[in-house]
């Protein structure tokens, strides 16, 4: 008899999930109400999340979503707590590159360093050419990838190298399948660049790359306002004395509206919050909805430090992140093909 390969992680997952699965089967026989998992209801929750708008931590859309999820947990029978912490923010009023007679839109990468009213007038230089960049605006072309974080070594090191060679500002091209400028997750403690840093969409990059090859003069403008503000993790508990914990967590914040990245996970999280109190009567339940995600999991770090149960008291922890996002796409030459 042939046998499929099995690693330790697979065995561990199976061992953890087996008693949970047995209880789910038992509970399913008692509770047949699965309406919370209906496609219409799930999609309605995705729409509600989407309509809240931009989800940057501590902003209006993030605050609305915090209130909404807290109310839903309370209605499901959970005791709700809010964990407040500080997050940075920045809203650009202008971010572009003036190149001769054309103006090319850029995206300010938080934590942003501004150019001031006059802008930064300097020659463009390609950072991949091994020479000094003193006084220049370095153009850094990232390799083709589905980018998400500036902590990624493949993004962090070319940026640091350009700055070390004297660049007065950096334009980062987030080369990838969408052709768009992608805001990247960053640590909250300090800017990743001590000089102005902006993102350029690959689909708009051709004239900038050509100008940088010849050291053409350009002017970078990056202005806005920012500071620090409060964000909140939403924590729901249903305590059954002496019973092990089941934990379900999901992030809710991000740089944009996050409909595809965060919306499906939020909808599944809300459905599980309705269903699990009946399906798992022998467990205590902890539901977590975190802000601060775009700052390298800042909200989750506060949960881990002060809220999460000890591993010895936890039967299973389910995290609904980008693994529960919108449909995936196959990368084809010049286009994206939606997968079923």
Description:
By secondary structure, this protein is an alpha/beta fold. It has two domains: 30-87 and 229-330, Aminopeptidase (3-Layer(aba) Sandwich); 88-226, Glucose Oxidase, domain 1. 29% of the residues lie in helices and 29% in strands. Strands 1, 2, 3, 4, 5, 6, 7, 8, 9, 10 and 11 form an eleven-stranded mixed β-sheet that branches. Strands 12-13 form a two-stranded antiparallel sheet. Helix 2 (39-51) packs across helix 6 (263-279).
Strand content: 25-35%
Biggest sheet record: 11 strands, mixed
- Count of all domains: 2
CATH fold type of the largest domain: Aminopeptidase
| Run of helices and strands | HHHEEEEEHEEHEEHEHEEE
Rg calculated over all Cα atoms: 23 Å
Amount of helix: 25-40%
In CATH, what is the class of the largest domain?
Alpha Beta
CATH superfamily of the largest domain: Zn peptidases
How many DSSP-defined strands?
A: 13
What is the 3D form?
A: elongated
User: Pairing-aware structural class of the strands and helices?
Assistant: alpha/beta
> Which blocks of ≥5 consecutive residues have pLDDT under 50?
1-18
Distance between the termini: 33 Å
| Number of helical segments with 4 or more residues | 7
Average pLDDT, to the nearest integer?
91
CATH architecture of the largest domain, please?
3-Layer(aba) Sandwich
């Amino acid at each position: 008899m042939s046998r499929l390969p099995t690693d330790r992680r697979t065995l561990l997952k199976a061992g953890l999930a087996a008693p949970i699965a047995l209880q789910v089967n038992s509970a399913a026989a008692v509770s047949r109400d699965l309406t919370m998992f209906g496609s219409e209801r799930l999609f309605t929750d995705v729409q509600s999340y989407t309509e809240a708008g931009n989800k940057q931590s501590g902003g209006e859309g993030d605050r609305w979503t915090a209130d909404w999820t807290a109310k839903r947990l309370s209605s499901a029978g959970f005791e709700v707590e809010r964990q407040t912490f500080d997050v940075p923010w920045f809203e650009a009023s202008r971010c572009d590159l003036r190149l001769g007679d054309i103006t090319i839109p850029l995206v300010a990468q938080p934590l942003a360093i501004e150019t001031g009213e006059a802008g930064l007038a300097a020659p463009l230089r390609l950072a991949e050419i091994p020479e000094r960049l003193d006084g220049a605006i370095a153009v850094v072309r990232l390799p083709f990838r589905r980018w998400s974080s500036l902590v990624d070594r493949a993004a962090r090191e070319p940026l640091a190298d350009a700055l070390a060679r004297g660049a007065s500002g950096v334009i980062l091209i987030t080369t990838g399948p969408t052709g768009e400028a992608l805001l990247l997750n960053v640590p909250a403690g300090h800017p990743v660049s001590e000089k102005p840093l902006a993102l350029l969409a690959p689909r708009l990059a051709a004239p900038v790359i050509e100008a940088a090859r010849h050291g053409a003069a350009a002017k970078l403008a990056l202005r806005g306002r920012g500071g620090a503000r409060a964000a909140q993790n939403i924590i729901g508990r249903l305590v059954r004395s002496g019973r092990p914990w089941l934990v379900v967590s999901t992030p809710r914040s991000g740089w944009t509206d996050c409909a595809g990245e965060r919306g499906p996970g939020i909808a599944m999280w809300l459905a599980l919050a309705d269903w699990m109190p009946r399906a798992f009567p022998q467990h205590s339940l902890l539901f977590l909805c975190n802000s601060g995600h775009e700052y390298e999991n800042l909200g989750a770090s506060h949960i881990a430090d002060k809220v999460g149960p000890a591993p010895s008291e936890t039967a299973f922890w389910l995290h609904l992140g980008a693994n529960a996002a919108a449909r995936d796409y196959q990368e084809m030459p010049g286009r994206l093909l939606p997968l079923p």
